[in-house]
Hints:
With 158 residues, the chain is an all-alpha fold.
Amino acid sequence: xxxxxxxxxxxxxxxxxxxxxxxxxxxxxxxxxxxxxxxxxxxxxxxxxxxxxxxxxxxxxxxxxxxxxxxxxxxxxxxxxxxxxxxxxxxxxxxxxxxxxxxxxxxxxxxxxxxxxxxxxxxxxxxxxxxxxxxxxxxxxxxxxxxxxxxxxxxxxx
Length: 158
C-alpha cells in the first residue's frame, strides 16, 4: 500500500518455458559430464604415475621404472604437514570497545574448541589425504560441518 492507502500494482513475474529450461539444464549437465570424463583419464594417469604403476615408454630394462614422483610428493606433503596446524581467530570489529572485548574472548574460546576438535577427531589425517588429492588431481577439498544438535545442544564439528 502507498501512503494514500491505494494498492500498488505488482507486475506479473516473467514467464518462461519450463521445457526449454529443463533442456538447458540437461545441456549443462551433459557438458559437465563430458568435461569430467575428459579429466578422468588425466586423473587416472596422474595416479598411476604417482604410485609407480605407469608402464614405461621404453623396453623393460634395469632401472627404467625408477619413479621419483611418489617420494617427491610424499616428502612435499611431509614438509607441508611438519608444522602443527593451529586455528587463529581474530574478530572484525572496532577495537577497544565492549563488543570488541567480548568478541575477542569468544574468538579465543572458539580457537580452543576448534584446535581441540582437530586433535581429538583426527583432522590431521584428512588434511594429509587432501594434500595427496591436490598433488595428484590438481585440487583437494575439505569439508567441515558444525552440528548444533550434538553434545546436548552445545554443538560440535562433524
